[in-house]
Amino acid sequence: MMSRFGKDTSGCDGESATNGSSAIGGPSKPSNYLDHEIAQLTKLRSMPQGLLGREGPGRLRLPISTFKMLVGREGNHSGRGRFSSADGCHVLSRYLPVNGAFRVDRMKSRAYVSQFSADGSLFVAGFQESHIKIYNVNGGWKVQKDILAKSLRWTITDTSLSPDQHYLVYASMSPIVHVVNVGSAATESVANITEIHDGLDFSVDNSDDEFGIFSVKFSNDGRELVAASSNNSIYVYDLEARKLSLQIPAHMSDVNTVCFADESGHLLYSGSDDNLCKVWDRRCFITKGQAAGVLMGHLEGITFIDSRGDGRYLISNGKDQTIKLWDIRKMSSTAMYPRLREGNWDYRWMEYPPHARTLKHPHDQSLATYRGHSVLRTLIRCYFSPAYSTGQKYIYTGSSDSSVYIYDLVCTLFLSIPPPLLYQYHDSLVTFHLG
């Protein structure tokens, strides 16, 4: 059984609404509609071709029913005899299973990080009790690899699968990142007992500098790793040379997240507890901490960044309880730090002050802001939805209220799930909500 998406715009502040622009006209566009190039690019990826379109009163373009699209495909109205990729995305992105969730596994410790592989065939979950499990989604969620980590400090802070899905790296609050061969036949992988977990040292010249790694990612060609650390730095590791190739003194506080911007590997995005997103161009002079640009807008630390993969757009999750959408062409060369909130607030054990939810950065450079979820107690992730099935038209995020929130990128739809959809997972109540 599938549930359709329903209309709402309450969870998003579009650039046009925030700035009071009157550039958008006509009844078909809400006041907080994201009037930006990315909205048009998203439509091209996820809207059906024109022959299937229809207009309602006032020239309002209405959604196209899946039934009519199927009839049009069978009648070869497009002349291609099949759906285009945008047609397929339009159909797939309008529906979500609502038959209720089922329990895949139960562990003795809390899950700290989880993510699907790029093709959706594998699901990786890292737990605080030294365990990482890789589930085969297409094989009935059977455990493909059960990894017992080595030299764990506190928790598995991050994992990353190589592009060919043969290797997995895992990090903890240590400068050592470990590599596991997940393509081997054995299901159980106990560090250096049943299988070798190679240790990659991210400390400079094997120094005694102790720091933890919050984020680690493979490059798109699988030849490098990029990592974000608790000592305010970003690191790049050359896997072929088996050595650290770059350290960047990147921020004024913990760097919680880092990723490659696109397939080239030249651009990096980072986010920190200094409230800033930064863009780094490895072709320029960055070893002294000189970023290509800075993106301001968050009022608290940044927990995660996800790139759209085009070297231009990214989203960030912040401890100010917002997700922000960015275009790096709007970045600045310098940062300004407004002090809008007094007092010492710590997201690890305190609720976010209610009055702070209405505060806005006076120099906010983001394209849109998405509110409704809760970012407390841990570094909660956010992602663009898959390009192959949705055209990246949605943003989804975890939340400290045990929920998953899904936002429409251009703020015209939200996911509507009936209240009975509740299920138990790791002894906590999990529901689907939208901001």
UniProtKB/TrEMBL annotation:
Signal peptide: none
WD repeat ranges, renumbered to this chain: 206-247, 248-281, 295-336
A single cellular component GO annotation: Cul4-RING E3 ubiquitin ligase complex
Annotated spans, Disordered: 1-32
Protein name: Uncharacterized protein
GO biological process: proteasome-mediated ubiquitin-dependent protein catabolic process
Source taxon at top rank: Eukaryota
SMART domains, sorted: WD40
UniProt xrefs under Pfam families: WD40
Keywords: Repeat, WD repeat
Classification of source organism: Eukaryota, Viridiplantae, Streptophyta, Embryophyta, Tracheophyta
Keyword flag tRNA-binding: no
